[in-house]
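Q: Predict the bound structure with P-hydroxybenzoic acid.
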Amino acid sequence: MPDDIIASELFQPARMGALTLPNRIVMAPLTRSRVGKGDVPGPLNSAYYAQRASAGLIISEATNITRQGKGYAFTPGIWSDAQVAGWRLVTGAVHARGGRIVCQLWHVGRISHPSLQPDGGLPVAPSAVTPKGNAFTETGFQPHVEPRALETDEIPGIVADYRHAAAQAKRAGFDGVEIHAANGYLIDQFLRDGTNKRTDRYGGSVGNRIRLLLEVAEAVTAVWGGERTGLRLSPVSPANDIADSDPVAVFGPAVAALNRFGLAYLHLVEGATGGDRNIAPDFDFAALRRSFNGLTMLNNGYDLGMAERALRADRADLIAFGKPYIANPDLAERLRSGAPLAKPDTATFYGGGAHGYTDYPAMDEEQRNAA
Ligand code: PHB
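A: Predicted complex:
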């Protein structure tokens, strides 16, 4: 095993706001659609997260702040007391294994379907712009519909839903929260001029388009403090049919304005979410890092070598690994020892039970000794 890997920054502890992480390896938020009735996590979900507790930090799968915010079948919520009780199983199991876990707070906006909405209503969005593509419903994929544009006076209620979900996450025993402002979901829909056609104080100018983001950050940090709050952005990702005529003009001011909340970390998806890292080679992620006061977490397609280089070049403080965490519960140990990684089976990414979820083994002793 090469010395530079042992000495690697990836395995150095990091102070991240109020938390101390034993290493810089983060389990990225991963939708797995395996939560049961009432959108309540249970023992299977708890076992899955506990297996991955050696990560420096676990970010939970995206978790619906309300029924209205839900866009995918079998995803968990955090609005009800039953959901809080379910999440307590998860956080307790992760803590018992010495881990740390934050809850990713999610409202999908237009990326939903009436069959998932309260009373079968329309999904809500900044503007009535129909996304291309399909929603994942309980009866399979169904085409997206034209969403209903939120009234200006409904927006404080959405911000209050984030505040409530943040408080529920605290009751559930999480170590903090991550605001999901990426991947073409509600907050991102407000940020972008492709989906935000509003003429009120939440649309038009960049200052107006970032208003919901800042109001949510204010509400969530009022509950948790900035030192236990992170935030995820995907400035150039086309995920969920999102588009902007000028992402540079939006994300510079957004990150600068977020500094007032003293966030623990900024989580950036480079390139297309879960895909091509190089779709916008001219976008300056380093400039966002320089302008942000907390730690920078980078994500998308990292392996050990890429992670090492990003830390060494001071492009990031933390690296979030998504797909590798599906198939390698002991990813941190495998990276540390240079062991080979298991490949995830895409057929079991979403839905189902233990197969493809909790049945990926950790390295056995033989593999550990050979590595
Ligand atoms: C997905 O289910 O593919 C998914 C969910 C949340 C994200 C991105 C992708 O932020």
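A: The mean pLDDT is 96.
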